[in-house]
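batch job 7 of whatever, protein = MPP4 protein
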Amino acid sequence: ALLSAHDTVAQKDFEPTLPPLPDNIPENEEAMRIVCLVKNNQPLGATIKRHEITGDITVARVIHGGLADRSGLLYAGDKLVEVNGVPVEGLEPEQVINIL
């Protein structure tokens, strides 16, 4: 019975998942996700960059096996608007890294 219970629990997916975006979002409207990652002492596993044209801070890449990758909540190209309650518009990537 113990092994059966273990196998049942081991087959479940306990990773956080986001609901899909609704299909009826107008094309000129942006959708926003609020993501919560608890970092502890491990690195985030993502790099950021400033978009050349807009100046937005975006996720440049997500490193395989890192916290961001395992969570499934961050993707390359995502725009960062706020980190830990601090707006990142106009900040340099180095300043955003310090907040992260």
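notes: Residues 48 and 59 are 4 Å apart (CA to CA).
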